Amino acid sequence: MAPPVLQLSGLGKTYASGHVALKAVDLEIRRGEIFALLGPNGAGKTTLINIVCGIVRASTGTVTVDGHDNVRDYRAARALIGLVPQELTTDAFETVWSTVCLSRGLFGRAPNPAHIEQVLKALSLWDKKDGALRTLSGGMKRRVLIAKALSHEPRILFLDEPTAGVDVELRRDMWQLVRRLRETGVTVILTTHYIEEAEEMADRIGVITRGELILVEDKAELMRKLGRKQLTLQLQQPLAALPPALAERGLLLADGGNELIYRYDAQQGPRVGIVELLKDLADAGIGFKDLHTTQSSLEDIFVGLVHDKSRAA
Fold first, then answer.
1. For a surface tag, which of 13, 33, 86, 295 has the fewest beta carbons within 10 Å of its beta carbon?
2. Which CATH homologous superfamily contains domain 6-223?
3. What band does 49 get if pLDDT is binned at 50, 70 and 90?
């Protein structure tokens, strides 16, 4: 297996106030993957990113960026990283073109107008290249932040809440851009409150709460292991109550007795107990006219994980 492009070992951060923002986080990011870090406000997502990018100094642990320690070999490590922060911080009087070119120069990269043009076109900013930043909408300013982060051709891109407060069109453009970047070998790490974003895009998902990384899992495996499925049967005749023979099945009557609901773990397979259940219904003289299944979304899983962790704390 190829070595990770990013490795966090025992990463902790305690601020002078005594607030513990991160607790001994261990994490390996695979080269070329899209990794989504989910967590509620104050969970430690931005602190983790700021430590990796050298903006905040860790209290404990190490960060290795493609073989470079981000403290001992800061310049080499930082040059491999692009960061799109949450805050819209740009020089209002600069033009789009000049601010993106300046960002490239800050990393010691030689001018490359062709690359800057490619980035601006990919972000639908080309026709704004000579405009001052102060004239742009909030969504366009966020596109500029992304262009700045890509200006020096990083191999790892951090997107900290990249689509917070932006329109649906930009969100869609962002997803397309991230996929194209991954195809070129760029590793993308994003934090997001939009769980559908992680469900749509991520290869792996990490969940962090109260500074502790409580889960890291391949998305498909996470959905398989933690997702729940629900079978809903629309009955031919309404039931006033469940027959005693079905009482142990864990069934719920809904919609005024017109529906039966059966919930089961997706990891047990889609046919778990269903054949037997349908036979029991037939034996009890209960007919149904339709049935359908639904599966938990990533949001359901995330909320459940964070709730369980909070309850155990």
1. 295
2. P-loop containing nucleotide triphosphate hydrolases (3.40.50.300)
3. very high
